[in-house]
Design brief:
- The protein is mainly alpha-helical.
- It folds into 2 domains: about 70 residues, no CATH class; about 100 residues, no CATH class.
- Helix content is about 50%, strand content about 5%.
- It has a 3-stranded mixed β-sheet with strand order 1-3-2.
- Helix 2 packs across helix 3 and helix 3 packs across helix 4.
- The longest helix is centred in the middle third of the chain and has 24 residues.
- The chain is globular, with a radius of gyration of 16 Å.
- It starts with a helix and ends with a helix.
């Protein structure tokens, strides 16, 4: 509801519950709106897929799954390293969305039957560092709008601000883009 109310009209995009795999499908002859499809009604899946959408530029939003490759579970160490490199930014945004929604966040290496993360702790630190960078330097515009919507809807703005005040370079982004 929050996503659709915010982005349906200006971007022609809706968030819908899917079954198995999440995916993004651009508008087509059969569908006048682009669809961000999250898996099995899982809230974490919705936040993650929204994060990808918030990062994707106009050209990527014309392509199924934003034109990115995806190797399913069972990736090699090299494929996993490539996966993690492109997942840092969306998972950092997802972590901020989760905090705003007062919902637990856990990084996802999404490779249960493969070699796994070369260093899951290092990947977690990379996601955390990127979240701090977003807070300090600013989020992409759509991510900022959605974060502000979550903070308002869940009434978590004060707790979110307190958490991020711990970072020495904190307030630039929040003072400019999230109006307490």
């Amino acid at each position: 509801m929050l996503f659709n109310d915010l982005f349906r009209t200006p971007y022609g995009t809706v968030l819908i519950r899917g079954n198995d795999e999440p995916e993004y499908l651009p508008a087509s002859g059969q569908h006048s709106e682009a669809r961000v499809i999250f898996a099995h009604g899982f809230y974490a899946s919705a936040l993650h897929e929204i994060s990808h959408w918030c990062i994707a530029g106009p050209e990527r939003r014309k392509l199924p799954d934003y034109g990115y490759w995806y190797s399913p579970d069972g990736r090699s160490a090299q494929q996993q390293a490539e996966f993690e490199a492109v997942e840092v930014a969306p998972q950092a945004i997802e972590s901020l969305f989760s905090q705003a929604a007062d919902f637990p966040f856990r990084v996802s290496i999404d490779n249960l039957s493969g070699c796994g993360s070369s260093d899951e702790a290092a990947f977690t630190r990379s996601v955390e560092r990127r979240a701090v960078q977003y807070v300090n330097e600013g989020l992409p515009e759509r991510a900022s709008l959605f974060l502000d919507t979550l903070l308002n809807f869940y009434g978590t703005r004060e707790a979110f601000l307190r958490r991020w005040c711990r970072h020495s370079t904190f307030p630039n982004f929040l003072r400019q883009q999230i109006n307490p």
